[in-house]
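Per-record layout

source: Aureimonas ureilytica
name: DUF1275 domain-containing protein
length: 237
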Amino acid sequence: MRTRLRRRNRLRLATGLLFAASLSFLAGMTDVVGFLLAGDFVSFMSGNTTRLAIALSSGEGGAILRLGLVIATFVVGNAFGVLFMRWTRGSQPGLLALVGLLALVPLLFRDPSHGVPALVFAMGALNAALEEVDGQALGVTYVSGALSRFGRGLGRFLLGHHTKGWWTQIVPWTGMLSGALTGALVTQRSGGAAILVVAGVALGLALASLVVPQSWRRIWLAKRPFRRETHGGAPLR
């Protein structure tokens, strides 16, 4: 019985990490495609914040407005992702399908760069699809925090403090790197048509996630946004 339980837990952990890596792959690909089409990051808001600060210092009104709107759109996308997961009782397949549809919006414009805000909104919403695996908080559209946690975990490991799961933080970074590389190669060869690849990956992940037991997918949501809580903290179904 214990052996079976351990195997199940290992399989659940491996599946969660694969899902996290896949989401980061999608984010990395989308970020590069959006950047190459419009010149702005669509998921890397640290970079856009730095660029906004530079624009503010030099008084570039157009850049200030554009980057400010990009960051605001990303924030609104995150808020919508939480609301969507609440409305759908934690449906990652539904959220990923929506991301895939939003990824097609740039193709509605003669100049695909005009539709890139839809990608920014989608990447914000994507963060609600997974928040933790095996108790470890994981970001899927940004990796600075993951690299920081990995580095600190490595330092503690070298000091002899074996913190559980610190190594999992490298998983999103690996996914984002491979996704960004794929996005760059596809965009260089196909231009705006790379949007179709982004949408295809998102919709493919939506279908693949249906194979994962819903009970597993729900434990990857740190705040369980599909439940309401009383003032005492007890969840209401």
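summary: Residues 12-227 form a domain with the Growth Hormone; Chain: A; fold (CATH 1.20.1250). Residues 229-237 have pLDDT under 50 and may be disordered.
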